[in-house]
């Protein structure tokens, strides 16, 4: 799998009653696949993994696999405690996923040994390649990361913590893993991560403006002050906007993917107006660059 570029983390569509809307979800997936990211990461953070029942999760992952049809790999999220994570991993395997993004365990802050035990248990039963997601309550030391990298089936390490000193020490002792920048609005830090050899990253912007995402990946740095930095400022105006703002942008530009599920809330109307303005600024810059 060539995962050294940006990947798409699609949103999960719900209807007006809050039920899973597979038709709208599949339409959204087709937009993503047509833009040719490195991979699809279905039912992960942006896809509201934490809000999905096991049956909904299985249906969402299966839809992503069917729409991708082998054109690009599909990874699915898994999380919570080890026993529950195994259930989601099994559902992803049965749905045809190519791998798993292992989200931090629910609520508690485990010890380093606990984190490693969690991954060993998943690796022993999941039957799929695993990517560890370092963030929040799942922060590895360099010594633990070296052990993690020796667990059969663990292939990747996504960093959402942002400590580049720690990450470089981890990379030095675990060179066999594929590394990803997993910070929110990863484009803002993409150049810094690339400087230490981490070129792959997760792009939430790809969900609603793949042309902007790919233009920035290709070197259109003017997008940073015009689009990305203002987007981060807007994202920080509301709790949960890293998900709900992205979903609102998909809804307004492409497909009616519905609202976020509680406890998340949709963006305020004035913030949606700001979002529309930023999107137009970004698209205008991309069009000018393409016409030059």
TrEMBL record:
Record keywords, A-Z: Lyase
Repeat is among the record's keywords: no
Keyword Mitochondrion annotated: no
Entry EC no(s): 4.2.1.41
One Pfam family this sequence matches: DHDPS
Pathway named in the protein's UniProt entry: Carbohydrate acid metabolism; D-glucarate degradation; 2,5-dioxopentanoate from D-glucarate: step 2/2
Matches recorded under NCBIfam families: PRK03620.1
The protein's name: Probable 5-dehydro-4-deoxyglucarate dehydratase
């Amino acid at each position: 799998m060539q995962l050294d570029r940006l990947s798409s983390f699609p949103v999960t569509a719900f209807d007006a009653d809050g039920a899973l809307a597979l038709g709208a979800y599949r339409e959204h997936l087709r937009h993503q696949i047509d833009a040719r990211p490195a991979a699809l990461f279905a039912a992960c953070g942006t896809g509201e993994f934490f809000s999905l029942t096991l049956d909904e999760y299985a249906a969402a992952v299966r839809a992503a696999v069917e729409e991708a049809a082998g054109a690009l790999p599909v990874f699915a999220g898994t999380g919570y405690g080890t026993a529950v994570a195994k259930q989601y991993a099994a559902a992803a395997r049965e749905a045809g996923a190519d791998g798993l993004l292992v989200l931090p365990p629910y609520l508690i802050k485990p010890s380093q040994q606990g984190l490693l035990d969690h991954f060993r248990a998943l690796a022993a039963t999941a039957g799929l390649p695993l990517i560890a997601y370092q963030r929040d309550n799942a922060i590895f030391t360099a010594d633990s990361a070296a052990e993690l990298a020796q667990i059969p089936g663990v292939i990747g390490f996504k960093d959402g913590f942002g400590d580049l000193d720690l990450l470089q020490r981890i990379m030095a002792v675990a060179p066999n893993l594929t590394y990803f920048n997993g910070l929110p609005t990863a484009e803002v830090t993409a150049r810094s991560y690339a400087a230490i050899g981490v070129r792959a990253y997760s792009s939430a912007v790809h969900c609603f403006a793949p042309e902007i995402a790919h233009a920035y990946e290709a070197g259109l740095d003017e997008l940073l002050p015009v689009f990305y930095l203002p987007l981060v400022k807007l994202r920080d105006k509301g709790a949960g906007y890293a998900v709900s703002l992205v979903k609102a942008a998909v809804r307004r530009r492409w497909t009616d993917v519905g609202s976020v599920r509680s406890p998340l809330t949709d963006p305020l109307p004035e913030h949606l107006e700001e979002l529309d303005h930023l999107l137009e600024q970004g698209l205008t810059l991309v069009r000018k660059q393409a016409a030059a």
